[in-house]
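Morning run. Coffee first, then this:
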Amino acid sequence: MADKLFVKDHDVVIPGEELAEGLDYLPAGKAFRDGDKIFASTIGLASVKGRVIKIIPLAGKYMPRRGDVVIGEVTGIGHSGWMLDVNSPYPADLNIGEASSEYIDLNKTDMTYYFDIGDYVLCEVINISEGKFIKLTAKYRPYRKLKGGNIIEVSPTKIPRIIGKAGSMIALMKDATGCEITVGQNGLVWISGQADKQAVVARVIKFIEREAHKQGLTDKVKEMLRGK
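And here it is:
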């Protein structure tokens, strides 16, 4: 029996979907073998690298859209820009021409002067290529490197509830704690302020994430902030 591959790299698959047939293919991640066939165990993104078929779960991951404001962590530096992790199954790139409104002369300036590995950057999604490669910009304000503070991660699906109508929930937290709070639509939140107040904001945000589906949430948040 000839080996058969039923998915392509970056295909979205559902639980129980048959991915390949034949013992030469190897399952990884959330793919599993049953006899001579390989199936997906969860909804996710197929990664086909040679004979290895891997499923990357989509639950909890950020699916990018053009115009989204995101917070990314710099994970690599190349000749023409930076690689960022934006909590997505897809790789993200910040080209050197999108890093600053000023011209960057690489003969005179080290790229780490702008962004180094481990830095967090507030940026915007400007394009998503057909190969699902995310292009970012940090060229204009308010986009920038986020200095100091702390980053917490929440489910991207809960971001609208954390922000509140017209930013009402964020305004509540800012007014009560004096912290600066920046929310990325990819599920990362940057909090800057006094250490004890940062802890309060983080605790409240995690509470909102857990209780997002319940009524009376705003009143409960106000009570938490009053007891800070």
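The CA atoms of residues 103 and 109 lie 11 Å apart. Good start to the day.
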